[in-house]
Amino acid sequence: MSQRQPPLSTRLPPLICGTATFNNQYNPDPYALPTTAIVHEALSLGVRAFDTSPYYGPAEDLLGSALNTPFVHQNFPRRDYFLLTKVGRLRGDEFDYSAAWVRHSVQRSLERLHTDYLDAVYCHDVEFVSPAEVLIAVTELRKIRDETGVVKYVGISGYPVTILCELAEMVLAKTGEPLDLVMSYANFTLQNTRLASIAQPRLEAAGVGVVPNASVLGMGLLRRKGVPIGAHGDFHPSPKELRAAIQAASAWSDAQDIKDNQLEKVAIRWAFEHWLHDGASLGSSGDPASGIPWQRENTEKYGGTKLGVSVMGVSNVEELRETMRVWRSILDGLENGEKTAVDAGRGLDDRISSLQRQRDVEVLARGIREKLGDWVDYTWSSPAPGFVNKRSAPAVPAPLLTPAVTPDQPPKRAVVRESSGLQSMPQT
Predict the structure, then answer these.
(1) Alpha-carbon span 341 to 153, nearest angstrom
(2) pLDDT tens by residue, 86-145
């Protein structure tokens, strides 16, 4: 029986490095990305959490390879950083939330990431399956947690905030235990803030510990160049009218006599800064990556409260450094940011610059949202109408790799078949 962990909200860093960009959905060739350099630089800059998924193409392998290096082993003990991954989504049209597949997926992630444990595991894109299937997967992840300890925290992720709320409420009602974390993406951005206006009160009431805000650019929608085009072409589900409105708002922002007025720069800073405050009730007090010579920091030293958790995504070292510069500037502008800036060696001028940038971003953000008009808080359908899960009766290896089994002695693989076609959980 594993020992129950302290609340995630006391441990998870408020800034997470996401690896969805280590995927051919966002980049034509993820193997050409400097993924090892990105991970090493992130750790060197104080980032202490990484989010990934088997669905992100080679992302787990690339992240695991970057972490399984002498540089990391010698400088960053495993206990000093968090690894968050997911189960359940195999491809765009294939999902498997069966207990057998969950165990197989966890085992595979342990191997790919070269680790003995996973700090957190989400059920990936829960809106594509039934509530009953979600409950099966959550229950199995908790069983793995309690029996082996190779999973520490359990959560769900997805796009429609109402479904995330309904499932968090269902898990609490059916099991008596709230979810440790619920990750939403593209729902707290310049274009859409439904994570705060609709989901936050319900997730708090459902006892959810932490709610990370991912994809602050709306899966690349809030860019002057438009949505990213990877090896699979244009994957973005947004309608052309919304894209046109975004581009018009971007052109307006470019015309303003304010430094760094590019849409993506405004959108990243605005989302990070606002969720840091607005999402604090569902935030965490882990190491904030403030730039202070590293120790096991927590945010009680720098503002006295939890900070809303954000996930950043980058494709090169330059993007990472710029994102970290923005993040630290935001920290400098917090209530106790003057001390943070001084302790980190940046100085009082950096706090003054942060506060001025905060005002400039607010001006630009208001104008951009005004230009978006009725497109503010618009959401696209997920899944798309007519979606059918193509996964059926898969055969998967069942045993879970435990710390007692070494990589040189893999367990024998047993084939376990699970039936499909579960119906929605009855309402009680």
Answers:
(1) 33
(2) 999 999 999 999 999 999 999 999 999 999 999 999 999 999 999 999 999 999 999 999
Tokens describing residue 221: 């929608």
**Residues in the chain with pLDDT values less than 70:** 1-3, 293-304, 392-428
Say if CB 316 and CB 33 are below 8 A apart.
Answer: yes
Cβ(161)–Cβ(128) under 8 Å? no
pLDDT per position as a tens digit, 174-199: 999 999 999 999 999 999 999 999 99
Q: Are 247 and 305 in contact (CB under 8 A)?
A: no
Question: DSSP string covering 105-174, please?
Answer: HHHHHHHHTT-S-EEEEEES-GGGS-HHHHHHHHHHHHHHHHHH-SEEEEEEEES-HHHHHHHHHHHHHH
What residues have CB less than 8 Å from 144, skipping those under 6 apart? 102, 103, 106, 150, 151, 400
Task: Report how far residue 271's alpha carbon sits from residue 414's, in angstroms, rounded to the nearest whole number.
Answer: 46
Q: pLDDT, tens digit, for every residue of 248-258?
A: 999 999 999 99
Written in H, E and C, the secondary structure of 279-309 is CHHHCECCCCCCCCCCCCCCHHHCCCCCECC
H and E: helices and strands count for the chain:
13, 12
Q: Which residues are catalytic?
A: 56
CA torsion angle 407 411 414 415 (round to 10): -10
